[in-house]
Amino acid sequence: MSPLEAAAPTDRAALAALLAQTRGAVAFIAGGTDILVAPRSLPSAGLLVDLSRTRDLAGVVVEADVLRIGAATTLAALAGHALIRARLPALAEAAALCGCVQIRNRATLGGNVATTSAASDITPVLACFDARFRTLSRHGERLLTFDALVPAAGGSGLAAGEAIVAAEIALSGRLGRSAFAKLGPRDDLAIARLNLTLEAEFDGARFGATRLIAGAVAPAPLRLARAEAALAGRTPDAATLADFDRALIAEIEAAIPGRASLGYKRRAAVGLGRDLLARLIGSPL
Amino acid sequence: MRIAMKINGVERVEDVDPAQRLSTFLRETLGLTGAKEGCREGECGACTVLVESRPVNSCLMLAFQAEGLAVETIEGLGRSDGGLSPLQRAFLDRGAVQCGYCTPGMIMAAEGLLRADPNPDEATIRHALAGNLCRCTGFHSIVEAVRAAAAAR
What we know:
Chain A is an alpha+beta fold. Chain A has helices spanning 12-21, 75-80, 82-87, 89-96, 101-104, 109-114, 122-128, 146-149, 225-231, 238-255, 262-281, and strands at residues 4-7, 26-29, 46-50, 60-63, 66-70, 132-137, 140-145, 163-170, 177-183, 194-202, 207-215, 222-223. In chain A, strand 10 and strand 11 form a beta hairpin.
């Protein structure tokens, strides 16, 4: 028999008790859509904890104007959630563009973040919304900022034996509109070559504050401050769009200098950026 | 470890290795070889089964994760008298089966779609089957079969 043991805590209290009493190595699995893909591999020993059936780790609640998304919430559930579609459409759009139906029915928000893939579709959206994360380990619960959990240099701020249990997004102070766009080898089941998430104020004539995040051009989601500045306070006229294009190109060139993909990602950023602006404005550019 | 789950409507209690994939468990322990392990990385969809009526890649799920859940494979889709289900029949009638390797996964993905959306349009069908590859490239007939099955429901 395998020295690997498995457990599936039924709720968060059971998970906390399990972690508190376990002294050996602990690993986690949720949807399994990443960890079971070669060349990654399951641990050969220790305790493997299944989070996919931990009841109160799945679902979306709002408390004190903070949206809390359980880490075991599937991407299918995120994509179809009415409140998320209405208030944080970029997150629903990103979830709907992940993998395929089979993947979205299993893959989870927490798993997507914990795998720390540079090509994640969900993590850049959470960066754009400045999400915080609640985690649980044998040492108890922690509340981590986005940058603490997803360091700019790559890797993960999770300690060994520590699981994400929820992401939290403040609903107050949001910029009003958001959208997500992605370039992949095909429409479905594609790992992003580049994705952009934009959140912006737009009063029908002029942009206000904006946040623009790129994925798949750095070890962690990258904020594109120059492109944000090209929009802030301006109308979406030809001069603004030209400045926005130039800023996007400069940001991509600075992010991946000399990379073989630079040529097409420079152009793709402009295309995705303009797609996002058109959707935010609600009309063709 | 010992787990209990419902396979094609029948309660089963089985011993599984914690690292065993659901696809391997179905094929090698239970002899349900309809689901194919084509790629073992979620690309081909040939291993698609329904878990709680939702299509999933059984190669990307561990068997123990199915404890307490209802799993349906192509072997459980037919009528109780041994005949084909209307969806299976539509695949035959529309020529949607060529080499047949992708067919069980394709049908289970389509079955999951039709349970959630009994009257899907063509774009919805194509989107729902995007995770299933047919290397014979018979996609048009497959979509036609799903449309025909939906119309007959």
